[in-house]
């Protein structure tokens, strides 16, 4: 089922998401719905808070970045209870957007390499290191679990320049090809 995406301004996007266990209700369905919602919305990643669930769950399919990084073509994963344990390397800029912050794209600086611990959808534990585009997508989605958005990583000046556009999102004055949950709108 395709779910609505939570828009910038909704309080759930500012909460630290909670770990879950194997018995979390309807987990397989939630994961399937997240894949369907992400693909329908043309995203490369989706975090559970973006579908109005404050749980530590991310789905990522970085295949659209395959032209930039060959390894991304086959990078499709579910991350349950992820924890980034290390970020290192040079910071580099990458133009990011977000389904919860439609119509805004900005260069964001992040470390180039990360090490993450997580469980997959079968509750197998992993500790892996990623770099490049894969690290970037993981970091972006992981921020959602920490109550952060990519716009929080911009300079104060840049945020001030985006204020009107962010307010438009708050008021539901944006167009998307997917359904959204807005703070001050009945849409």
Q: How many distinct helices?
A: 3
Main beta sheet: strand number and arrangement? 5 strands, antiparallel
Into which percentage range does the β-strand content fall? 25-35%
- Oligomeric form of this entry? single chain
The CATH architecture category equals Alpha-Beta Complex
| Total domains | 1
Termini distance? 18 Å
How is the CATH topology named? Peptide Deformylase
Query: What top-tier CATH class fits best?
Result: Alpha Beta
- The CATH homologous superfamily corresponds to Peptide deformylase
| Overall 3D form | globular
Overall mean confidence score, pLDDT: 96
Q: What is the SS-derived class?
A: alpha+beta
Q: Which stretches are poorly predicted, pLDDT < 50 over at least 5 residues?
A: none
Strand order of the largest sheet: 2-3-4-5-6
Helix content: 10-25%
Radius of gyration: 16 Å
Query: What is the number of E strands?
Result: 7
Explain this structure.
It is a single chain. By secondary structure, the protein is of the alpha+beta class. The protein has a single domain (5-181), classed as Peptide Deformylase, CATH 3.90.45. It contains 3 helices and 7 strands; from the N terminus they run E-H-E-E-E-E-E-H-H-E. The chain has helices spanning 27-40, 132-145, 156-170; strands at residues 5-6, 45-47, 57-61, 76-98, 101-119, 125-131, 180-181. A 5-stranded antiparallel beta sheet has the order 2-3-4-5-6, with helices on both faces. The protein is globular, with a radius of gyration of 16 Å. 36% of the residues are buried.
């Amino acid at each position: 089922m395709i779910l609505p995406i939570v828009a910038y301004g909704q309080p759930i996007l500012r909460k630290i998401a909670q770990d879950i266990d194997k018995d979390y209700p309807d987990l397989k369905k939630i994961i399937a719905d997240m894949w369907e919602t992400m693909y329908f919305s043309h995203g490369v990643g989706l975090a559970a808070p973006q579908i109005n669930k404050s749980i530590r769950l991310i789905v990522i399919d970085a295949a659209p970045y395959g032209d930039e990084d060959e390894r991304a073509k086959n990078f499709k994963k579910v991350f349950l209870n992820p924890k980034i344990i290390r970020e290192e390397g040079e910071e580099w800029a990458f133009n990011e957007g977000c389904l919860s912050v439609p119509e805004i794209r900005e260069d964001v600086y992040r470390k180039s390499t990360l090490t993450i611990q997580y469980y997959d959808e079968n509750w197998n534990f992993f500790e892996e290191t990623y770099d490049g585009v894969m690290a970037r997508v993981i970091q972006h989605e992981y921020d959602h679990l920490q109550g952060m958005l990519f716009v929080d990583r911009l300079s104060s000046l840049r945020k001030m320049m985006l204020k009107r556009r962010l307010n438009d999102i708050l008021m539901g004055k944006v167009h998307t090809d997917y359904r959204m949950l807005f703070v001050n709108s009945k849409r």
